Amino acid sequence: MASRASIGGHPIHPMLIPFPIGLLVFSLIADLIYLWRGNPVWESYIAFYTLLGGIIGAAAAAIPGLIDWATLTDRAAVKVANWHARVNITGLVIFIASFYLRTTSGAKWIAGLPSLPIILSIVGVVGLSIAGYLGGELVFRHGVAVAASSTAPEKPEAQRHVRAA
């Protein structure tokens, strides 16, 4: 089933998701480097802004994903897509909470537990992994956003006459 949200026959959602995934995971890595080395630039700037970029990128990637979800007709694919969406939305809310708790006003809420934003990022990355698995299920098992090929790709002339020894 080809994607309705596509450019030149290529689905947009899979084009966009590597950016927020990379930024959100790198934000956690920056947090871990901060815990290891103690340099606040890793937490206050690098983790903060990669987290913000990941949140914005995830929201942008959700739009074509929602368009693809709305066009699903296979019941089994819809069930997996619903879980994929639920886990992604929950993860996005967790990352937003982690981001807010890193701001000046949010830090006042957790004065006694300053590591809570890092814990939330860990939970969020686990959620990303689960959502990624479910996204893979949609593509590889249910053929979501995969255009049906009318013919098998043809082997080049040189490979047609090669015999195994």
Short description:
The protein is mostly helical and 165 residues long.
Textual characterization of the structure:
The protein is mainly α and 165 residues long. 72% of the residues lie in helices and 2% in strands. The chain has a two-stranded antiparallel sheet. Strand 1 and strand 2 form a beta hairpin. Helix 2 packs antiparallel against helix 6. It is elongated, with a radius of gyration of 20 Å. The two termini are 40 Å apart. The mean pLDDT is 89.
What are the defining features of this structure?
single chain; 165 residues; mainly alpha; two-stranded antiparallel ribbon; 2 strands
Portion in beta strands: under 5%
Give the terminus-to-terminus CA distance.
Answer: 40 Å
**Main beta-sheet annotation:** 2 strands, antiparallel
Order of helices and strands: EEHHHHHHH
What's the overall average pLDDT, rounded?
Answer: 89
Rg, rounded, reads 20 Å
What oligomerization state is this entry in?
single chain
Helix-strand layout with pairing:
Elements: E1 6-7, E2 10-11, H1 12-16, H2 18-37, H3 40-70, H4 75-102, H5 104-107, H6 116-141, H7 157-160
Antiparallel strand pairs: 1-2
Helix pairs in contact: 2-3, 2-6, 3-4, 4-6
